[in-house]
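Hi V.,

You were right to ask for the full record rather than a summary. Here it is.
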Amino acid sequence: MKFAIDMMGGDNGSLIIVESILEFASKHPEDIFYCVGNVEELGKIKDVKNIIIIPSKTVLRMDIEPMEALHDKESSLFITVDTFLKEQCDAIISAGSTGAILTLATLKIKRIPGITRPGLITPFPTYKKNKKFVCIDLGANTVNTKEELHQFAQMGSIYYSFMYNDAHPKVGLLNIGTEEEKGNDLRKETYQLLKNDPSINFIGNVEGKEPLYGNIDVLVTDGFSGNIFLKTTEGSCKVMSLLIKDAFKKNLLTKIGYLFSKKGFDDLKERMDYKNVGGAMLMGVNGIVVKAHGNSDFKSFTSALNICYDLAKKDIIKQIKEALQSK
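Predicted structure:
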């Protein structure tokens, strides 16, 4: 397989991404990695057999206006997208601006026929061990229509089915209450579309506190609310981890107690660490496009690479197209 990688887009510079690529490429010697960025900063990977360095001159700002991204043809992200197309790569990954990635992917890679608006999707851990749910959209859009949310539910169901081998994933609509009449007009109208679509296993409205219990498989929402849900969940997990650490540091007895329970808390930390899911797929475009965390470190960018690899191996775009055609 072939992967196109924007080495310059993240907040933490290229060094962390270089280390991640080095390790990942060594584990997948049969695959090819097109790494786009400043040649001087990528010197550590220049002699690796299955890595090809492609030079770029500029880096897009995180706050860049999306349409401006189309005009800077020397940016690492623009050249990465071009490389993806020219080399017929299996997947593309960048930790850069979400708006720029969405714009370039939509206008250059194009949408899957019939899809109105792409959305970001990623898995979340839950209380149930080895159980995940996925959420779409996580911030590719700020405003959505009921028809777009309906398509998110379809694409989310397809994604979950093929990634987790579940033919009938349970779909919930993020809302302020579980009753059918709850919420604004967008959610009330979306509710009816999902309720009347026999191809979707719709279980109704879901409050924001429920998904982490592991009782749903696909959480559907507009991108504005989805991004708030994502950031709130990540922040809550971080704060809980800090509170647990503080509790065990209080005195000698709590420190001794920590030694006896360390294995259990290490397992909890690993299960709830958002860095284990380092990227979100841009569902709806005609290629595998993964948005890594803007502040990616080694662990989270490696996780994003693993997501790219799994999606490409499962040929997820072909699966989505075939499933949508059958609906």
